[in-house]
């Protein structure tokens, strides 16, 4: 017998149980030929403060990189740092044997930026958030 319990903030052990179970299931389905997904970051660091002020986080798995988050602080924009972060992510993806990169972005963020970098839209989710659109993009690296 199990119960369904809402956790407004997931407990670490809950997330671990879900993630480990899903990874084990996926490994079984793919014949163990794929490494479990792993997270990476490419940071923008302020050397004077010794801390990250922005950057990119991504997950590598199943021969693709998924760019989860990309942020450049407003005072650093206009220096092509977003482009440099994406180019570095592509270099990392290639080194890791990825055949492509995918990501999502909102219409009020940067769909045009990614398209200029060669990403192709493969889907949208209208009215998410209300009044806007979520765009899904992919770029082949082969």
Automatic annotation (TrEMBL):
Residues 1-142 form the N-acetyltransferase domain. InterPro entries: Acyl_CoA_acyltransferase (IPR016181), GNAT_dom (IPR000182). It comes from the Bacteria. Coiled coil: none annotated. This is GNAT family N-acetyltransferase. It comes from Devosia salina.
């Amino acid at each position: 017998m199990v119960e369904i319990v809402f956790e407004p903030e997931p407990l670490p052990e809950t997330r671990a149980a879900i993630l480990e179970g899903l990874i084990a299931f996926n490994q079984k389905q793919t014949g163990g030929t794929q490494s479990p997904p792993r997270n990476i970051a490419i940071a923008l660091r302020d050397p004077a403060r010794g801390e990250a002020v922005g950057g990119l986080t991504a997950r590598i798995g199943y021969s693709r990189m998924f760019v989860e988050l990309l942020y450049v602080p407003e005072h650093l924009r206009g220096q092509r740092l977003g482009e440099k972060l994406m180019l570095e992510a592509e270099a990392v993806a290639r080194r890791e044997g990825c055949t492509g990169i995918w990501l999502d972005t909102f219409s009020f963020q940067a769909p045009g930026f990614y398209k200029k970098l060669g990403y192709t839209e493969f889907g949208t989710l209208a009215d998410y958030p209300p009044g806007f659109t979520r765009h899904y993009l992919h770029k082949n690296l082969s």
